[in-house]
């Protein structure tokens, strides 16, 4: 096929222990999926239907040294379990949803909180707060064939060595298979889709020169340092 412009490069995430990489199609994110985080954001943590937002595929990056995002004075970290979809489907039953998962990684949903707060106040979309350049650092994906489907385990984020977020995967309001099944009612999921599953309490601001380290028990970690 001929293109009128050069097609953009394929976004991807590394796979632990493999030379081949995981191509990224879309990134879906579950909002307020841990009760304590819902409370700290001023929301009711009851089991209301989940809601989702998206990030562009090219927001993915492997971490390391990154430029500090522009147009914000309140950049926040949100540590999350990331689910990599390996087999597509629509209207998936909960009990079969995990059959569609290729593997898991740990990632950061970086958020320009001041821009998000202003958007909320004006009832406007969040895209500029959530979908900016390099807003989605993700560590290597570990195939489910190696580790199974974790439903518990410590998930944690530190800033300059100080623990800011600490929780357990078992504290999700909506489990991974429930979130996949629910989302698949609204969009057809496909190989290459990523699902970020929400963050525990303790989100805090990050400044130029800070180093973030996020980890999830049995899965891996992601490290990000922001240029001064």
DSSP strand content: 25-35%
Q: Which strand order do you get reading across the main beta sheet? A: 4-3-15-8-9-12
- SS content category: alpha+beta
Principal-axis shape: globular
Number of helices: 5
Protein architecture, described:
It is built from five helices and 18 strands. The chain is of the alpha+beta class. The strands form five sheets. The protein has a six-stranded mixed sheet with strand order 4-3-15-8-9-12. The chain has a five-stranded mixed sheet with strand order 6-18-17-13-14, with no helix packed on it. The radius of gyration is 17 Å and the shape is globular. The N and C termini lie far apart (44 Å).
Fill in the keyword field for this structure.
single chain; 228 residues; alpha+beta; six-stranded mixed sheet; five-stranded mixed sheet; 5 helices; 18 strands; 14% helix; 32% strand
Short description:
By secondary structure, this protein is of the alpha+beta class. Helices cover 14% and strands 32% of the residues.
Q: Could you outline the blueprint of secondary structure elements for this entry?
A:
Blueprint: E1 12-14, E2 21-23, E3 27-30, H1 35-40, E4 52-55, E5 60-61, E6 64-66, E7 75-76, E8 79-85, E9 101-108, E10 111-112, H2 113-121, H3 127-130, E11 136-137, E12 142-143, H4 144-147, E13 154-159, E14 162-168, H5 176-183, E15 194-196, E16 205-206, E17 211-216, E18 220-226
Parallel strand pairs: 3-15, 5-11, 6-18
Antiparallel strand pairs: 1-2, 3-4, 7-10, 7-16, 8-9, 8-15, 9-12, 13-14, 13-17, 17-18
């Amino acid at each position: 096929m001929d293109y009128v412009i050069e097609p953009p490069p394929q976004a991807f995430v590394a796979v632990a222990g493999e030379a081949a990489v995981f191509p990224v199609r879309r990134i879906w994110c579950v909002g307020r999926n841990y009760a304590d985080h819902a409370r700290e954001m001023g929301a009711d943590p009851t089991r209301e239907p989940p809601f989702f937002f998206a990030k562009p595929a090219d927001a993915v990056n492997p971490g390391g040294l990154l430029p500090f995002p522009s147009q914000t004075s309140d950049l926040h970290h949100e540590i999350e379990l990331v689910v990599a979809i390996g087999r597509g489907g629509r209207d998936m039953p909960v009990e079969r949803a995990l059959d569609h998962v290729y593997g898991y990684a740990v990632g950061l949903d970086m958020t320009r909180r001041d821009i998000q707060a202003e958007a909320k106040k004006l009832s406007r979309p969040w895209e500029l707060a959530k979908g900016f350049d390099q807003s989605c650092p993700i560590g290597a994906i570990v195939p489910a064939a190696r580790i199974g489907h974790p439903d518990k385990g410590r998930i944690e984020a530190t800033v300059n060595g100080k623990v800011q977020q600490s929780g357990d995967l078992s504290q999700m309001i909506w489990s991974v298979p429930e979130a996949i099944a629910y989302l698949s009612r609204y969009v057809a999921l496909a190989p290459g889709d990523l699902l970020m599953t929400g963050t525990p309490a303790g989100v805090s601001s990050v400044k130029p020169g800070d180093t973030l380290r996020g980890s999830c028990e049995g899965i891996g970690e992601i490290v990000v340092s922001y240029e001064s």
